[in-house]
Amino acid sequence: MDGSEERFLKTLRTVAPGTPLREGLENILRARTGALIVVGDSDEVMEIVDGGFRIDAEFTPTQVYELAKMDGAIILSRDARRIMHANVQLVPDATIPSFETGIRHRTAERVAKQTGELVISISQRRNVITLYKGPTKYTLKDIGVILSKANQAIQTLERYKSVLDQSLANLSYMEFEDLATLNDVATVIQRTEMVLRVVKEIEKYISELGIEGRLVSMQLNELVSNVPEEGLAVIRDYIPKATVGDLEKAEERISKLSSEELLDLDVIARELGFGAGVDVLEQSVTPRGYRLLKKIPRLPLAVIENLAEHFGSFQQTLTASIEELDAVEGIGEIRARSIKDGLRRLREQVLLDRHF
Fold it and tell me: What is the pTM (predicted TM-score) of this model?
């Protein structure tokens, strides 16, 4: 998740159900008085404030509701814990473009663009709450509507996760048999990214739902607890250059693919670092072994990295004798036997998963 997405989720959490600010907004909404609220009293905000009066009092839903009965805007501290000013006139730069028609919403949009702070506009006629943060505009939806969409997204995620699990099981089998192709790898990366995109959508719903989204959050965590790590391990296994910088760049390139590009496995192979060609997806590839070795209990990451670096491929690690494993830094005879036993049990489990 990039910085802009995280900032937007933070904004949604600020006004989510269960917060004092959301309670105050709902009170204003029900009273149909309308309001203009700026969350942040930075220098940029205060430069465009005219009139009004300073309060500097602790925020309460009741107080903000009463203050909203006046015509002017309300200025809160950035953490929304204090009411700093009330009944103020906001005078943003009139040259800032705005596509809003109402005076309150047009002012809110310009203030948000000029200051970068969160500005909340509550429409008196349309009875909706609109958030403005920088260039972003977002209208809060009814909790019931969001819950319904979140539950639909969870169902979609369950289907995507099931398909991903099948692809991972197939890849694991191919890796043990040394039969993996770039098509198998690209398919897993594609389906991992599809799952992660649904996760981002659900995280937005959870942020907006606040305390109403606890059950959805629990379902999400149960479904995808290890998906990002396993997806990254697949990329690390197959990327031509396995340095941290190359790994991060490949992950970022894949995450930025459009929905149409993500459906093209040739594009994924290219972003992974493989060349273009008619039969590029059919070429055989061998993993370094990071993903499968991580599945062996109590095997430290440093030891996994030593194994991958020492043997160069998972097949070499798989066929290594106890003496050869023992020769790797950080591995004694006891751990070498544990690795051999762990790989044997893992292979049996992979074969079982494939057939059932």
Answer: 0.85
